[in-house]
């Protein structure tokens, strides 16, 4: 075996969604801040992302997270989320995976019954409080970035679908929130392929027709995901986030529910101090709440809190032989959906 690159990862999932944590083999990414490093991956050199995420070393149904030394003096660790389309600024489920890995592998000292870990992301600092017992990280509660609705009841023209109504909201990244009843579909695993295809089409229309950007952080612009939002038969919140280029987040989604809570609060549907259960497409659960309100560039905003569980399920080392023709991997649309649109 003669690899010219070796990367070690600890694999975990948060309520069903896989988030691999790169713990060895990546020394640094150029940039003074974590946001600079994210922009370097997205705009300058994305070879590392492609190597880690693409087949045959990766697959569509997971995220890979770069664990980095923090820049901010108050942070314990920093990270960037790598997915099939690009690097992303923030993720609740991946934060839960990261904290679980940091504590259960001893990278950060676990203190029982509670360990506080401050994460540095391109969207800002995130406070994570881990409930710990007998060496196990049992639950992680995240104080998410301030979240706010950008556009309510916006209409986009989607080829083949006509006008579709969406809410554009920020929960650490930008979401297009869609009621699936517009398409006569329920949020079930049986409808997953149809909903993913619809979500990708709506996202392309939003990107083409609406100006989506953070009012204070100009480089945080464009839609990251669409999310179908509804309720289950018990009246509990249910959602399904479409992760480009074409799969569902298996977890209830931390940033997506932060964005959703901001919209619900703006409409008087969710009160400060309230806690509810939010379910995913596979019926896994996060606890979601609003712990306060604030403003972002004059926009009324909320302070969301997301709580869920993570589990380590493997340790993985990958590499590449210098004769391997797929040094940076490949994408095929049977798994990756609109892969060719993203590559070209």
UniProtKB/TrEMBL annotation:
One matching Pfam family: Pro_racemase
Signal peptide: none
Family annotation (InterPro entries): Pro_racemase_fam (IPR008794)
Parts forming coiled coils: none
Family listed: Belongs to the proline racemase family.
Protein name in the entry: Proline racemase
Species this protein is from: Mesorhizobium shonense
